[in-house]
## 1
Amino acid sequence: MSEFRQLDQSIGARLARNAYRQEFRSLQWEIAGQESWKLERKQHFKEPGVRSWEAFSRGAWSEALRLIEEERDYLREFSAEVARLNIGLYRVRVVEEPIDLYLQGRRSSRIVR
């Protein structure tokens, strides 16, 4: 996956959150040996129903971190399956200043200016 390839130029369709998640989950393992790119442009994030986000939105930072930590085993399993299937996962997130607190809290993100 080190060689540069042109991104697919097909036209997409905007999906509601639940429809997007359903379609993504139904297709996510069918791209063995390929790349998956996610482009995010949204500046403020709301994820009702996600316990760690709900804790974060209440200002309960310690609880939010604890809940994220509880997902560690799942994330390890997911990452192992991605590696086994040789899938390249990429996310590009366009942000504006001031940077939203939600984004500042994501230690795994790299901000490129």
## 2
Amino acid sequence: MPARITDPEQLKELLGIPFTPEQTACITAPLAPQVIVAGAGSGKTTVMAARVVWLVGTGQVAPEQVLGLTFTNKAAGELADRVRKALVKAGVTDPDVIDPDNPRANR
């Protein structure tokens, strides 16, 4: 599927989140490994999900090329769920094709 997201404002609208300038900078940073360190409840999982949606939605990476690490299973589940829903909403992935047990089939 082609890229569907072209600017940060479009991402904010899609996700319905008024990201701070610092969060937007993390989300839209050039393609490279990143580490986000922040306190509990500060929005790390939200920013990670938005980063994945940005990278996939702008066509910089395929969904199966992303590795997101969290400290808890709960955060990992939330991250996966948010990313899947946002990619479908953005029209980047087909909702009938997403299979979390077979990521290679998610193209």
## 3
Amino acid sequence: MQSKPRRSFACWLLIGLQLFLGIGAVFGGGILVIDPSGDLLGLPSDIMQIPLFPNYLIPGIILLVCLGIWPLITAWGLITMRDCGWAERLNIFKKLHWSWAFSLYISITLIIWISVETYILNGVAFIHLFYIALGLAIEIVTVLPHVQEAYLKSSAGNEF
């Protein structure tokens, strides 16, 4: 019986980065949905000075879904390499597994999220730099040639 090749460090790193982002955003977004005032997270209510968001509910939902649940689903896909019809329809990189494409989408989403947040706040804190770096790290690891190769559909037996 032939054993599957081991998954590369970069592939495991990508999975770990997605899990880190997803778990943190589920926690943060979930708290903002539970308490839209931001008090549970120690966020001042006067930060939300734009008419679009009178409190943290909508940003909390976006955070929970787009940067919490989505990365967790992506990590699951990166680990299992399972087919997923709805996800495949959103994959613009048809030669690569949908989870690889989603990983790239998430990195871009995170960078945009933090950029908009710093624009709204009119300032940058260490946490913003950390999450911009996380978004860039996810993007860089995702586009590494051997990570792309691991998630090629034609090499379905070689991804581990």
